[in-house]
Write a sequence for this structure.
């Protein structure tokens, strides 16, 4: 197995084009597990840790955060908690402190696992994934269109993930993750919520309860239409419950070793109900 | 005028918190575990395992594997020179499967190559032609007439009957339940590893992480067809055991490859292979019934316990013994009827794990005690105190308990400990789900649960349970040094420290060297059944006493006085008042005093085959736990807030180490109650990794209050009582009870999963 170590983004894309059999590796928290368990033997590893551009984040015109694919979770927590609270909450639940220092949002998107912790808040926030190739340059894909199947995404063989573009939060965000122990656990189900009071909209993201991470569009529209955006009166319990049921209905979970489909649906209803309650309370307090 | 000099006492004696000799190395990462073994010209061995729970092997073609560059040997069952069979109690397990595989993961072939990756690649090229056969994977079907036979002669490993008192008892209050316990893994952190080095005499030296060198040696000799003199075992650094190293793993395989290649062979499992490479705790299906007076006093108990032994016998018969003989808990019960069964299936083999049959039973009898308490309207503590054993009582097998049995006091102590403060919601880490941010207090209910247990210490039912110790006292570089040599396996529990403490106490010397355990000294028995401090501790004590007697006789001659009144302390010979009479180094000169002692505890006895009655055990150890949990009853997530315990240890030879055992054992029991399960579906292990086999983290395990009682057992060396297992037995049922209280559901299975709590 070759170990390829570009030192610039330009070089990385060139190598990617030449070696479609190369597996990109950033923090290695997914890739190394696959290698150690002998589940994958790629022809080469394309190590992106020396590409400095990937380890930066900036604020674009319009207030979107351009988060380099190689920024580790620990920095998302430490540096972006105010701008991207949902993503930071999700980052806090990833693995152990050691894993959070290594693991990256770009890597999460590369693996495209239905259980990836970063995905639900990116969906809820309406993020875009910026991918690039040497031949065709850069394109931006809405994260809702990015996942194509279990551990599959829209990347072409010559493409790499450059960054993810996440709108700075305009309102409260929540992320909730159920696991069977209280730390260092892969989610049984996860839910992210973003309230966008500026445009009176709601964003959602569901994890571990369908072949891909997905939104709950019907629940979003329902809630956005029912919320009292103007007066911001207390949230009726029935509305929170009805929203939870719609989120659960949007899931397509399975039974597996981590949990049952029925429990996943049930837990999503509870998480969505609680998340909207907390987020609405935050919004009212902020007013 | 004469002056009397009083010497300093030797430090690091029994009762002191002596430091582990390997402590610094372990904390700094310098300790050499078995997986660190290295030999310059070694090759690597790997195992090819069966993908099927039950299949006939029609043919194995190794040609393609042998052709891989770097491969030095490929072995199958045909290459086993001795008996192709091993086992702790019955030699029913092939070293390499010959005609049939009986569980997923059964070893079929071996490869040695110059790199582990090469060996794995080559193993993947071995062509095994399997005829897949129907698998028996439901233990409840194992004894049906039409069930497939796992071995000729039927699927029953052992049926133990215990009968006592009225054969047809009645009682005004009757409670009953069914209970299931899932398969727990020992999950030791240091996976199976060993290094076999071929010797010039045609034999082999094996360095391996294990729990009992001599029982390994016996089995390896049989498989290799060699006498014990040619198969020498040395203990390599052991990273935890918990019963999972009682059976052989890499042992014979590494030796076979070493003898074939003429090269040292290292084998070291990864985590996934480790899940297939050792036995697990038996899953259990149990039905219990208690009859009691209206005040809760037990009249009778009935229990039916079915343990899934998997494909091979391992120690299933002994586990059935424990589940049957001890499986009604530490209670006075006039009439009992227990039937415990161990059966073969095509599931992964099960065997020894900390708590050994008592763990499974305790979940059932403790859940039922809470049912009884509710039925008669008394508290969980009171019902257990009312029925708890006391010294002088008889067990369900009629054995008189002839040392402390402080059930009531242990419960009183845990009940009297301060309760944790009420739910505090400002820090997510205090809440069920923690930073998963699943609740800010919504749906959270608190529950408190109690459990108590007793466990036999040492091997039971007439087993000749002994240990051997060789102790040598001599002068090295001007100082008296004691050398302790046993074959006892230090697996992390701290026996090396205790051996030093005993030698310091008995010989009054500061410097004690515990040399590596190997088979050049007699057997020490197994590091299991909470027995090593008792039995090997007893052997070291006895050997030290023999050395001391010889030294003091020599001193008496040198000093021209009687032996009476002489003692050893502070590296000196001292008189009755502690006055220094001679330096030990001066007295010994160039001579070494060495004694080897084989030491036995009081004999135990087989039980009556019809009634299970008899004095089966040498000692009982008691512990109680109180668990406090916060449960998110809408999501089924649990935060254990407190897990407090009281345990009688007879005498704490190293108090810090005792508390460490209690903390670790409690965490392991809690793990089984809430998350630890090897999920097996149709004979296949679904979660052979730490990604999905969940062990408690620091956010799952609360700080513990531990009260250690020291009611010395007059029959045991220093009064010690085994420590390691009881906490694993009583902690889980206490946690399960607390969760039941919090959520109001019966929860008749562990591990308790979120969907059980929510009922979804």
């Amino acid at each position: 197995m070759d170990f390829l170590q570009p030192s610039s983004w330009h070089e990385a894309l060139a190598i990617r084009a030449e070696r479609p059999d190369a597996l990109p590796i950033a923090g290695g928290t997914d890739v190394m597990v696959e290698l150690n368990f002998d589940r994958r033997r790629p022809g080469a590893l394309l190590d992106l840790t020396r590409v400095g551009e990937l380890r930066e984040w900036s604020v674009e015109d319009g207030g979107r955060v351009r988060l380099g694919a190689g920024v580790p979770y620990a920095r998302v927590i430490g540096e972006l908690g105010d701008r991207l609270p949902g993503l930071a909450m999700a980052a806090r639940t990833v693995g152990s402190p050691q894993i959070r220092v290594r693991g990256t949002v770009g890597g999460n998107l590369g693996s495209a696992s239905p259980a990836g912790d970063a995905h639900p808040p990116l969906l809820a926030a309406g993020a875009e994934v910026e991918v690039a190739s040497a031949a065709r340059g850069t394109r931006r894909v809405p994260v809702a269109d990015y996942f194509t199947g279990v551990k599959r995404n829209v990347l072409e063989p010559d493409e790499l993930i450059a960054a993810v573009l996440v709108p700075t939060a305009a309102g409260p965000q929540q992320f909730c993750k159920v696991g069977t122990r209280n730390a260092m656990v892969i989610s049984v189900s996860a839910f992210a919520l973003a309230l966008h009071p500026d445009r009176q909209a709601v964003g959602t993201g569901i994890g571990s309860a369908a072949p891909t991470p997905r939104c709950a569009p019907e629940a979003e529209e329902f809630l956005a239409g029912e919320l009292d955006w103007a007066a911001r009166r207390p949230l009726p319990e029935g509305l929170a419950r009805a929203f939870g049921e719609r989120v659960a209905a949007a899931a397509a979970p399975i039974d597996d070793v981590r949990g049952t489909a029925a429990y996943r649906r049930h837990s999503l209803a509870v998480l969505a109900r609680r998340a909207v309650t907390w987020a609405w309370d935050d919004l009212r307090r902020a007013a | 005028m004469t002056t009397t000099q009083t010497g300093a006492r030797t430090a690091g004696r029994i009762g002191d918190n002596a430091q582990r000799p390997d402590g610094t190395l372990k904390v700094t990462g310098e300790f050499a575990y078995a997986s660190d073994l290295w030999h310059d010209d070694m090759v690597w061995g790997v195992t090819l395992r069966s993908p099927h729970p039950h299949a006939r092997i029609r043919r194995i073609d190794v040609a393609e594997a042998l052709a891989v560059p770097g491969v030095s040997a490929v072995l199958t069952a045909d290459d086993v020179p001795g008996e192709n069979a091993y086992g702790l109690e019955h030699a029913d397990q092939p070293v390499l499967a010959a005609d049939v595989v009986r569980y997923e993961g059964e070893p079929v072939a071996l490869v040695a190559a110059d790199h582990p990756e090469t060996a794995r690649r080559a193993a993947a090229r071995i062509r095994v032609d399997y005829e897949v056969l129907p698998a028996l994977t439901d233990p409840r079907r194992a004894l049906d007439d039409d069930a497939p036979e796992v071995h000729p002669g039927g699927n029953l490993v052992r049926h133990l009957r215990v009968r006592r008192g009225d054969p047809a008892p009645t009682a005004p209050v009757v409670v009953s339940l069914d209970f299931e316990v899932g398969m727990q893994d020992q999950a030791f952190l240091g996976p199976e590893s060993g290094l076999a080095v071929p010797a010039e005499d045609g034999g082999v030296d094996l360095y391996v992480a294990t729990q009992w060198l001599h029982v390994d040696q016996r089995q390896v000799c049989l498989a290799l067809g060699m006498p014990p003199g040619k198969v020498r075992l040395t203990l390599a650094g052991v990273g935890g055991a918990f019963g999972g190293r009682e059976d052989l793993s890499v042992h014979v395989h590494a030796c076979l490859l070493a003898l074939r290649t003429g090269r040292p062979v290292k084998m070291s499992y990864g985590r996934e292979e480790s899940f297939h490479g050792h036995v697990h705790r038996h899953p259990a299906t149990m039905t219990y019934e208690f009859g009691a007076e209206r005040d809760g006093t037990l009249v009778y108990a009935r229990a039916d316990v079915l343990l899934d032994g998997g494909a091979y016998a391992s120690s299933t018969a002994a586990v059935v013994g424990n589940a049957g003989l001890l499986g009604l808990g530490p209670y006075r019960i006039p009439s009992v009827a227990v039937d415990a069964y161990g059966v073969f299936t095509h599931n992964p083999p099960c065997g020894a794990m900390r708590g050994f049959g008592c763990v499974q039973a305790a979940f059932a009898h403790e859940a039922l005690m809470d049912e009884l308490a509710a039925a008669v309207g008394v508290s969980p503590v009171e019902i257990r105190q009312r029925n708890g054993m006391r010294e002088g009582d008889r067990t369900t097998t009629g054995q008189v308990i002839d040392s402390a049995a402080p059930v009531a006091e242990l419960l009183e102590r845990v009940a009297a400990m301060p309760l944790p403060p009420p739910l505090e919601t400002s820090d997510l880490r205090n809440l069920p789900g923690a930073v998963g941010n699943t609740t800010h207090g919504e749906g959270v209910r608190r529950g408190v649960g109690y459990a108590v247990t007793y466990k036999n210490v040492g091997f039971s039912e007439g087993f000749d349970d002994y240990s051997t110790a060789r102790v040598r006292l001599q002068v090295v570089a001007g100082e008296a040094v004691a050398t302790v040599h046993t074959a006892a396996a230090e697996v992390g529990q701290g026996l090396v420290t205790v051996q030093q403490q005993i030698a310091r106490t008995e010989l009054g010397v500061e410097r004690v060297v515990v040399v590596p355990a190997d088979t050049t000294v007699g057997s020490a028995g197994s590091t299991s059944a909470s027995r090593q401090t008792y039995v090997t501790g007893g052997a070291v004590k006895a050997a030290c006493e023999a050395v001391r007697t010889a030294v003091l006789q020599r001193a008496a001659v040198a000093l021209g006085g009687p032996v009476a009144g002489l003692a050893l302390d502070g590296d000196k010979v001292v008189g009755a008042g502690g006055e220094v009479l001679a330096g030990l180094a001066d007295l010994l000169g160039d001579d070494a005093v060495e004694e080897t002692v084989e030491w036995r505890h009081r004999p135990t006895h087989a039980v009556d085959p019809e009634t299970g009655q008899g004095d089966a055990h040498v000692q009982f150890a008691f512990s109680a736990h109180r668990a406090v949990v916060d449960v998110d009853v809408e999501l089924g997530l649990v935060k254990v807030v407190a897990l407090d315990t009281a345990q009688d240890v007879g005498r704490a030879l190293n108090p810090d180490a005792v508390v460490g055992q209690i903390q670790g054992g409690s965490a392991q029991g809690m793990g089984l109650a809430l998350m630890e399960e090897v999920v097996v579906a149709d004979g296949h292990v679904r979660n052979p990794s730490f990604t999905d086999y969940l062990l408690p983290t620091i956010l799952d395990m609360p700080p513990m209050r531990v009260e250690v009682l020291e009611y010395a057992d007059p029959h045991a060396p220093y009064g010690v009582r085994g420590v390691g297992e009881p906490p694993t037995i009583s902690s889980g049922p206490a946690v399960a009870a607390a969760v039941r209280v919090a959520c109001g559901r019966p929860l008749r299975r562990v591990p308790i999963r979120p969907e059980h709590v929510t009922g979804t």
Remarks:
- Chain B has 16 helices and 29 strands.
- The CA atoms of residues 211 and 246 of chain B lie 6 Å apart.
- Residues 532-559 of chain B form the longest helix (28 residues).
- The first strand of chain B starts at residue 43 and ends at 49.
